[in-house]
Design goal:
The protein is an alpha+beta fold. It has helices spanning about 5-15, 45-60, 90-100, 105-115, 115-125, 140-145, 155-165, 175-185, 240-255; strands spanning about 20-25, 30-35, 40, 70, 90, 150-155, 200-210, 210-220, 225-235. Strands 2-1-9-8-7 form a five-stranded antiparallel β-sheet, with helices on both faces. A two-stranded antiparallel ribbon has the order 3-6.
């Protein structure tokens, strides 16, 4: 009988797509992997380490979650559903929530500009100790991409980050819970959760760009927590989410059936 790792890698090979995948428990026992150390363009999954960097500033007392920040007209992006009525004040907490659960790019850019990329990257490197993760541009900055600047993660990095979050090795207990609670409110469920119809707690962040889709987070099944991170890049934008959904369903079924070997 073939192992889960073999079965999933066979599907990846047959798909002929560029896939980075890591499925493990929070102890770091790996059940399936494919290019887990490869640095990939993050799309909106970079917003999770950004959120943790901001919450560190809250822990230090430099800011408060109820601090009000003015979202000016010049930073409003056309894709924002949150600021459709125009400029207004928003609390730091509200901006963090919209950045994660709706992946609001306006909220994200306000946060990046408010705290600065240098401070965010310093946290990512020195506290989270991530090797392949960095913030090099604001959202929808296509000129930066043309100039070779982008945002990056690796699935190995994301496992380290989620381990530290779930084990409360960063921030403090209260702020770890704030981060986790926001991640569980994710409204985009078209990737790993695509074909899972049972109620499942999944604290995660999705991301999408032309020809690339990602979904990364921690799923709780039968009171056990598992890290799942999948990135798919293809020459055809159609089908990425379906492949992630198929792999996600395989992982979920393997957990339910106790077939993790």
């Amino acid at each position: 009988m073939t192992s889960l790792n073999e079965r999933m890698n066979q599907i990846i090979i047959e798909s002929n797509e560029d896939v980075s995948l890591l499925f493990s428990n929070l102890k770091g026992d790996i059940f399936c992997e494919c290019k887990k150390d490869e640095q990939v363009v993050s799309a909106s999954t970079i917003k999770t380490p950004i959120m943790l960097a901001v919450l560190e500033e809250v822990r230090k007392g430099n800011v408060k979650l109820d601090d009000m920040i003015y979202v000016d007209e010049h930073v409003l992006l056309e894709d924002s559903k949150v600021f459709e009525d125009g400029p207004r004040l928003a609390s730091l907490y509200e901006l963090l929530v919209w950045m994660i659960i709706l992946s609001d790019n306006t909220s994200t850019n306000v946060i990046i500009n408010y705290f600065g990329m240098e401070r965010i990257n310093r946290y990512i490197q020195n506290v989270l100790e991530l090797k392949s993760t960095s913030v090099q541009r604001i959202m929808l900055d296509f000129k930066a991409i043309e100039e070779g600047r982008n945002n990056y993660i690796s699935m190995s990095d994301m496992l380290v980050m989620y381990q530290k979050l779930m084990n409360h090795e960063i921030l403090n207990d209260e702020l770890c819970q704030v981060a986790y609670e926001i991640l569980t409110r994710q409204r985009y469920q078209d990737d790993i959760m695509r074909y899972i119809y049972e109620p499942v707690e999944f604290a995660h962040k999705t991301g999408s760009l032309d020809y690339r889709n990602l979904d990364v987070g921690v799923m709780t099944v039968n009171d056990e927590k598992y890290f799942i991170g999948i990135s798919v890049k293809s020459v055809n934008v159609d089908g990425n989410q379906q492949l992630i959904g198929k792999l996600g369903r395989m992982i979920y079924d393997a957990i339910i059936q106790g077939d993790l070997c």
